[in-house]
Amino acid sequence: MTIAAKIRGYIRESFLFGSDQKLSDEDSLLDAGVIDSTGAMELVSFLESEFRVDVSDQDLVPENLDSVAAMTAFVTRKLASQ
Amino acid sequence: MCGIAGIVDLKGSGATPSREALVRMAGALNHRGPDEHGLYRDAQAGFAHARLSIIDLASGQQPLSNDDGTLWIVFNGEIFNYLELRAELSELGHRFRTRSDTEVIVHAYEAWGDDAFARMNGQWALALWDSARRRLVLSRDRMGVRPLYLCEHGSRLYFASEVKAIFAADASIPRAFDPVGLDQTFTFWSIVPPQSVYAGVHELQPGYVRVYENGGMSERPYWRPRFPVGADGLFEGSLDDAVIAVRSALEQATALRMLRADVPVGSYLSGGLDSSLVAALGRAVAGERFQTFSLRFADAEYDETPFQRTMVRKLGSIHHEIVVGRRDIAQVFPDVIYHTERPVLRTAPAPLFLLSRLVAQTGIKVVLTGEGADEVFAGYDLFREAKVRRFWARQPQSEKRPRLLERLYPYLARSPVAQQAMTRRFFGRGLSDFARPGFAHAPRWQTTSAVKRLFSGEMRDALAGSDATARFIDSLPREFSSWAPLAQDQYIETRTLLAGYILASQGDRMLMAHSVEGRFPFLDKDVVALANSLPAAYKLRVLDEKHVVKKAASGLVPADIIARPKQPYRAPDALSFVGDDVPEYVSELLSERAVSGAGVFDAKAVAQLLKKCTAASASGTPLSNSDNMALVGVLSTQLVHHQYVAGRPRAAQTVHFRTDVDRTESGKAA
């Protein structure tokens, strides 16, 4: 499974609870109400355990976390540099 | 304080109310008024009453009539200015048979008609049957302290303090969820009156009077919240003047609530500013032997014991307390939902259910509470958050302005710098809409709406094209946009949450579950009018919430209670319902079969949610706000379905009517 597919699957299962809400890879998770102000930590824990990447404080910005596409690019970059 | 119920044949077509139905209604409301029961019935109207005797213990029985027996009333609540009104009515030539406030209402209606209600200061829900004119009048207090539910079925109107009495009256009354009520619940945390969660059942809106006569119905507000428009209606005076006025209004409001009772009045004490102030004012009136009641939590996160102890020392009150843990909440939750009769997104009502039980066990029937202060004097974080977001919206590029959020949510200042970027992004959504109604509430409503992702396909279909938020915004009064932003936020908070949740699911229903009456000095009509007239900066001074109340409390409440950061009243939510020793009903009601059966939520989604919450509990990971609300919301919906939709309310107890006026042919024969 590709990185994007894994992230998509996780969001669907853990945040959308399997609902068929439309969500494109580019949609902002905060704007779409998929995660709330406390939800970012869950995303980070998932990325760390699923892809074995180290997420530093500096990485915790919307540019890296706020959409499926942003997380995919972030994980890809991280894996390449590890 | 009591339970009221009635059945009226609206067309006068011979559908005489059944005596047995009235008996069942009174029985279903027995917890609201276990002291005495009463009945009135004629060919067209029937009233039932369950009484909790507080004023005029000897002769305040209901239903009660005027002198010639043509005008009948059932009444739940208290009219705190009844002695003043009685004096006024005596001047007009009215003569009284009892010392009760109930009789004052009857005479006030005779003297002033439907305009009587605007003269009343109190908390009430009542029905008047003008048998000569065949006119039914229903009225409810300004803020919605006392409940009144209505259901038109066939040619009859059924009304009652609680929905369970309506369902108990007649098995043919449909019992089904209204998707619109559930949509509101999972947007605003509560239905918005007059909506209910049941199809065909409505509540009378707070501040309204409704009249049925000549086969028709009309209703109007006899009161509506007013806020200053520019200088019009604005309090004229300095902050110091306002402090004196607020203190005096609260003293008066509390004294009325202490003295207008023929039984002792105690007080809740949370350890926060509002209940501490109310208890201090109550103690000043009561003198020695003043009783106070507190909730403590086994989870340190929610506990406020040290502040309660500080205040008890200051008061010298006879203090009672209970400690509540997660399993206690899980244990009583089905009973709690039996009383709320609607889904909730927080477990916060459960500890209050246990607290009112403690009050009843000590023999106290009436308590003061600090409820309403956060709405009326702008205490909630939401008001501060909105102020920061509006300030930020004027300079969206500013780096410094959003940092004010750290003053509200200190955890932000402690979290990694970059985590703040996500939070900022969250609060920064929709900043350009800062002038639109609902701006302050949008983040909350959006977070809450996440629960609706778990709705079943049928629910989504039923709600297709319906938008709870848009409909609510459309219902705002014309003058709304001319009020100050803080007034707008207070108005929305009051409309969406006070009557529908705070005073109902956390207030009246939890208190009356154990026959305890709550009294709310902050919701006194004069206190509310004064608070609404104050400049926004007196209530929310920069980011200091309830500023004028804090100043008014100086000397009455210890400084460390006044200065402490506001702690929202919370209880352990989803974590109460996961883990090893959870009561069996939880897994039964969340099973695929039960969830599919109720039809509100998608069974697979609920299974997924439960799995997530269970895993989080096992690993000690904190659950997000959304997941907490989702689990409590789903479970409470399942409990409502189980008790009120699939099942009918518990069999009513038999009641003996001390007052029994039956003017029907069959009644006379018996």
Question: Mind explaining what this structure looks like?
Answer:
The complex is a heterodimer of chains A (82) and B (670). Chain A is mainly α and 82 residues long. Chain A has a single domain (3-81), classed as Non-ribosomal Peptide Synthetase Peptidyl Carrier Protein, Chain A, CATH 1.10.1200.10. Chain A is built from four helices and no strands. In chain A, helix 1 packs across helix 4 (68-81). The mean pLDDT of chain A is 89. Chain B contains 29 helices and 18 strands. In chain B, the strands form three sheets. Chain B has a seven-stranded mixed β-sheet. Chain B has a six-stranded antiparallel β-sheet with strand order 4-5-6-7-11-12. Chain B is globular. The mean pLDDT of chain B is 94. The interface between A and B is medium-sized, with 28 and 31 residues.
CATH class of chain A: Mainly Alpha
Instruction: Report the end-to-end length of chain A measured between terminal Cα atoms.
Output: 20 Å
Structural class of chain A: mainly alpha
Radius of gyration of chain B: 25 Å
Tally of individual helices of chain A: 4
Largest sheet descriptor of chain B = 7 strands, mixed
Mean pLDDT of chain B: 94
Provide the CATH architecture of the domain at 2-224 in chain B: 4-Layer Sandwich
Q: Report the average pLDDT across residues of chain A.
A: 89
